[in-house]
Description:
four-stranded antiparallel beta sheet
Amino acid sequence: xxxxxxxxxxxxxxxxxxxxxxxxxxxxxxxxxxxxxxxxxxxxxxxxxxxxxxxxxxxxxxxxxxxxxxxxxxxxxxxxxxxxxxxxxxxxxxxxxxxxxxxxxxxxxxxxxxxxxxxxxxxxxxxxxxxxxxxxxxxxxxxxxxxxxxxxxxxxxxxxxxxxxxxxxxxxxxxxxxxxxxxxxxxxxxxxxxxxxxxxxxxxxxxxxxxxxxxxxxxxxxxxx
Length: 225
C-alpha cells in the first residue's frame, strides 16, 4: 500500500500556517497545518466553479476571467477550456510556492494550463484585483481557503463580507458573474450576496464530478445587465 510522502513544506508568506505538498502514488495533495485542502483526485467541484460561471457569460469573444486562488490549476484549466482564443484568465495567488508547484510537480494534473498563452498569474491578493480591477471582469471565481468560512488566511474574510461583495459587484461587467466555491453551505453568505445586488443561485456539486465524492457548494451571483 502506498503511503503519503512529503514533497515540500513551506510557511505561507504571512506566517498564517504551514503548507505541505504531499504525494501518495500518483495522487498529490496540498495540506495546510495538517488539514487537506485539495487533491488531484478530487477536483470535480473546482471544474464546476468555472463551468457554471462560463454557462452564464456564454460565448463573449474577449471574456476576462479572474480566478482567486491557483490551487492545483483545475479551475483555471476549466475556464480556459470554455473561453475563446481571445479570452483571458488572470489568476491571483498569494503563495509563490503554489505557483512553482503548478509549474513543476503539479503541472500535469490539470493539463499544464499555465502553458496556455491566455493564462497569466499575479502573485498578489485577489482582493487587490477586485478592489482596483485593471478593467471590468466578466467573471470572478473565488476558490480561496474552504469558502466563506476561511481557515488558512483569516484576512480573506473581506472577500465574503459586505465590502468584498460590493467591490466584486462593481468590478464586474453588466451580466457578469461572481462564482464562489465552498466546502459547505452558508445561508448567511447567500443572504449577503443577495443584499449586495446579485441574482443568486446555489449549486450542489461533487468533489469527484460524475463519480461522486464529497458534496461541495458553488454560488453564482449575476450582476444584472
